[in-house]
Queue: 4 jobs
Job 1
Amino acid sequence: MKLYRYLTGKDDVNFCARVTKALNEGYELYGSPTMAFNGTDVIVGQAIIKKVEDESEVPQGLKNAVAALD
């Protein structure tokens, strides 16, 4: 199973730390980053994916959401 996440936040060191943490947890960058300006701050986003063999790594909320699609 592949996990998908889309991280968003203000373009600062905290956002970079979140992406770095995800990469160190086995996620890979997916696609190009996005940027927008909300009138005050630059807001960035980055999609990340991770392939998991053991479904126990899948958060229960995500399992429930995927099951609801069936």
Job 2
Amino acid sequence: MQLTELQFDDAKPIEGYGPGFFRIAGEVLKAPLIVTATGARPWGGYDDPAALLDMASEIDVFFIGTGDEIGHLPKDLRAALEGAGIGAEAMSSPAACRTYNVLVSEGRRVAAALLPVQKT
């Protein structure tokens, strides 16, 4: 099997995470947060759909990290995102980080909205 190292060009990769934080492009940031190719910003969690909807013209899919375990998105949040033409994939935060990194390295229009993990 051949492994290929991801190339991020100007995109900001998610480099790591731990209880209550994520490391984005060398900077440790408190969670929850939204990560895009251009950087990271705070997110108010499921009660802050506006922060996600404001990005409708910039991205095609949100990978929503639900913490340590996979969880379901609130129905109203999923409906609002789909109504704005944004795909939403719920997965554990570690899986969301990995998926985001692969697709952003390909130049795809993706973002990750991440709730913190409690354990590592």
Job 3
Amino acid sequence: MSPTPHPPRQAPGAPRDLVGIGIGPFNLSLAALAHPLTELDTVFYEQRPGFDWHPGLLIDGATIQVPFLADLVTLADPASDWTFLNYLKARDRLFPFYFAERFHIQRAEYDAYCRWVSENLPALHFGHQVDAVRWNPERDVFEVDFTQLDADGEAEARGCTCTKNIVLGVGTEPYVPDPLRPLLEAPGAPVVHAARYLDHRDAFLAADHITVVGSGQSGAEVFLDLLRHRPAGREKIHWIGRTEAFAPMEYSKLGLEHFTPDYTRYFHALAEPVRDQLVTSQWQLHKGIDADTIAAIRDELYRRTLHGGWPDAVLTPGVHVRTAGRVATTRVELHLEHVQQGTRTRLTTDAVVLATGYRERPLTRLLAGLDPYLRRDNSERPRIDEQFRLVLDPSVTTTGCHVYVQNAELHTHGVGAPDLGLAAWRSATILNSLTGKEPYPLPTRTAFTTFGLEPQPNRQVKTLTPLVDLR
């Protein structure tokens, strides 16, 4: 598909309508939905040379945990040029997909779809590192400093863009707990975060004994991949995690309604202490393991008992890594504690995969220039309104200028913040807010569950007029 280039929409020197910082799936969704809005002047910057989505975890057969309809645009505009189905059509793959009867696509295919969109949107600028953001009160605009990078990632040129609005989509970064960080800094046995697993997969398969730390989806996928490629009876794999069980993700039909706009609005209206407690308690909604992966692990383990004996694989939940260190530079020693038993032991291993999750990338450096205008909550986190805007001083917002965020609002909007299924709805909400119009009409009700006793407005069901009178 060749995008239709937009003609110049504003006078030279005029500020842009929107600058996006970061090009992951969420800002890519926003760029795709903004593309047909020809009255908007938008640009998106990303320091990487091209789009990639968790390349170290594109394990063969691993699927995304939302249906294919949760692509970049469909749930806001199913007639968009940038739907997953249109991607298949452009690749002449509609019929193969139809007969595959897959509701959940492989992670590698989702990555390829996003890359197709990113290569066809003219507003995206890869190889551009954003260095600073500040408010210019004399011109009532934000100023965004950036560095253009060459093919080697070295600075090539510097620039500055003025804009009325900004959207931050800088994503998350791999998280490693403090007791495990020394392992990454010392040479010797292979120890990597799961985000880089495929880059080092051969070294792990060659190791005599492997340990996977982390009981979420990434840990399960890495464990399953290693298990399938180790010789029967000589697997020599440990899988440990802090949770009380290798628990399935909550995937009941009503449970999934926690990932609807209805629940997001309900969560946002709760008191801050209640929201903080809920985020902690709802881990199984988004940090558990999907049932198919659990079943595949159990099936693989069972298959290896066919000729007698048990596989040399140890799966232990409820385990906390107290400390860790190197042993003779070539091995790793983990000091473990079982939370429920209160017992301790040591585990010596030749390689470690840290499937310890991701955390929101800190915005402190990027937003340092806006700090005087930024309003924070009781925990010093940025306050974010219902329309995904940072709460800034009125001297900024009364000019009609705003900073929007994507996937940095877990503390204000709940478990749906990192969920791909809400990407299109959030992008449409941002564009409706930014334009002051409704280019993307959104549903007034999205869940059968009523979250709370307070009546929720705009939940009436519209009566449709039939196209044909059948009397």
Job 4
Amino acid sequence: MRFLMMHRLDEREPEAWNPSPDFVKTMGAFIQESVDKGILITAEGVHPSERGALVRKPRGAAIRVTDGPFAEAKEVIGGFALINAADRAEAVEFAKSYVELFDSEIEVEVREVVEFDDLPPQE
């Protein structure tokens, strides 16, 4: 099974976007170990929302684009990882290990990826 982990952080904390050399080294080792074990498929950090955009399509309305930063959002996605895990419990345990790497407050959402075989048969 594949799971998507999205980590959220407080965009107002500058240190969240400027990792220390020690953190980068620790995260790099964690990533390499996770790849070597066949758990991690890919992981990336993202830039602050000021470099992003939000594209919305309200029901029955035209598409709207809002440039960042997103003032209404305190917490934003700071990065993601796509992992292999036997089940949700194993994915959550991996997320706990990931969260332990951070000194700042962080939240990680773990979501199972919909696989083709999960979809109902098409007629």
